[in-house]
Amino acid sequence: MADDTVTTGELGRQIGSMQALLDTRFSELNARLDKVVSLDVYTIQTTHVEQRLAQLQADLQQVRSERDSLEDAFEQYQLSERDRREQERQKRLYQAVIPVLMALLSAAIAVWAVVAG
After folding, report:
1. In this predicted model, what pLDDT tens digit does every residue of 39-52 receive, in sequence order?
2. Distances (CA, A) of 45 to 31, 42, 54, 71
3. CA-CA distance, 12 to 2, in Å (whole number)?
4. Count of H helices and E strands in the chain?
5. Residue 14: CB partners within 8 Å, gap ≥ 6?
6. pTM of this prediction?
7. Is 31 helix (H, G, I), strand (E, B) or coil?
8. pLDDT of residue 49
9. What is the pLDDT of residue 116?
10. Do 74 and 67 form a contact (C-beta atoms < 8 A)?
């Protein structure tokens, strides 16, 4: 039993060693807990992220619909511009052809008047 007895100094050293070990472990635990997010903060953050995603999806859908309407408007503009150019081309053609026909008709009448007269 003499070997099983612990002196007061040795007992104090062991208690000090255990105290230091506990301090180290609690420091590690506190460091880990500092990195952990509380459930309330996580819930708030998750809700915010979900709301932001919903808003971004709505914005994306709005941009898509605006783009589609812009594409439709541009296509309509191209069609109307093509029709306008075709009408303008026809007007220029008629403006060039009618005077030539009038000149030919005048020449034919003049020739007919000379031949008939």
Report:
1. 888 899 999 999 99
2. 22, 5, 14, 38
3. 19
4. 2, 0
5. 6
6. 0.49
7. helix
8. 96
9. 84
10. no
